[in-house]
Amino acid sequence: MAEKIFNAESTTDEVLEGVDLRGRRMLVTGVSAGLGVETARVLVAHGAEVVGTARDLDKARRATAAIAKGETGGTFELVELDLASLASVRAAADALIAAGKPFDLVIANAGVMACPQGTTADGFETQFGTNHLGHFVLVNRIAGLIADGGRLVNLSSAGHRFSDVDLENPGFARGGYEPFIAYGRSKTANILFAVEFDRRHRARGVRATAVHPGGIRTELDRHMEEETLNALIASINEAQAAAGEPPFRYKTVPQGAATSVWAGLVADADLVGGRYCEDCHLAEIQDGEGIRGGVRPYALDPERAKALWAKSEEMVGERF
Predict the structure, then answer these.
(1) Phi and psi at residue 5, in whole multiples of 5°?
(2) What is the pLDDT of residue 161?
(3) pLDDT (tens digit, 9 = 90+) per residue, 206-215?
């Protein structure tokens, strides 16, 4: 049977059409809104046992109230997790390890974007600390629970093109904080983490990949003023036009979550392992200016990935 071809307009339901996930267990972070809720919904709808994490459990309960009411045999449970607190991350990881149930797929979905300068409970710059370091500790602590042949999907962004990681000044200690530069660093870190995690675990068939969901109106852009958002879209369209590509269009939430489930469950593991995906396909390496498609070479650099891993271990005070 010919392999189905998906694209930017494919939805989660289309990607998982005919896929039976009964008996498989999955973890999705950030299930209190947007992509996380949709990701959990479609996995449960296909029979998966899903554990969702959220910082605000009451909000997550409201957002996911309809999820577990299908007839597929899928189940859904919530675990409290605040990625901006390593104490919370470690407590959540300890609880999962104590439960001892393996995962076939981990989707590191939660995150913050372009927020004002601040720090996490542990003193890390908010975006790097939440988007990268929180997931770095969580995933590495539960790595032994990821079953042989399982996968890790890190949600990155085309925003990784704003900036490479800065291993000498990760917290902007020397000033010059810019919300989108900080966001770019954290999203590049999400890709580099997948690259090195994939290298370390592929011998037992565990593969890791990073994805760009696309532009979607969710709570993620709550820190952005409309003027800033419009200017960003204008710059994207300028780059698109220069490349002979169509103008930017927002995706629906089911279209935005499609690449996560495609990369985690449908795509060939050797195709996506240690790579970066967008619009339900493997992204091409692009070194031009502008925030459009493709992945910057620095985000896939294996030596950079090893250096980030070492720096991350140093920052969180834990070796993996």
Answers:
(1) -105, 125
(2) 93
(3) 999 999 999 8
Catalytic residue among 10, 32, 187, 251: 187
Identified catalytic residue from 10, 156, 260, 312:
156
Distance CA 98, CA 262 (A): 30
The yes-or-no answer on residue 276 being catalytic is no
Write phi, then psi, for 133 (nearest 5 degrees). -65, -40
Q: Which residue of the set 183, 186, 260, 276 is catalytic?
A: 183
Q: Does the pLDDT value for residue 248 go beyond 70? A: no
pTM across the whole model: 0.92
- Domain architecture of the chain: domains with CATH: 18-227+253-316 (3.40.50.720)
Q: At what angle do helices 302-316 and 179-201 cross, to 10 degrees?
A: 100
Structure tokens, 182: 């900080």
Q: Report the pLDDT averaged over residues 289-305.
A: 88
| Number of Cβ atoms within 10 Å of the Cβ of 83 | 27
Please report the sign of the dihedral spanned by the C-alpha atoms of residue 64, residue 45, residue 139, residue 179. Answer: negative
- Contact between residue 51 and residue 96 where contact means Cβ atoms under 8 Å apart: yes
Q: Catalytic: 59?
A: no
Read off the pLDDT of residues 153-194 as tens digits, 9 standing for 90 and up: 999 999 999 999 999 999 999 889 999 999 999 999 999 999
Q: Is 156 a catalytic residue?
A: yes
The number of CA neighbours under 13 Å toward the Cβ of 68 is: 13
Query: From CA 146, how far away is CA 83, in angstroms rounded?
Result: 19
Residue showing tokens 């709808």: 45
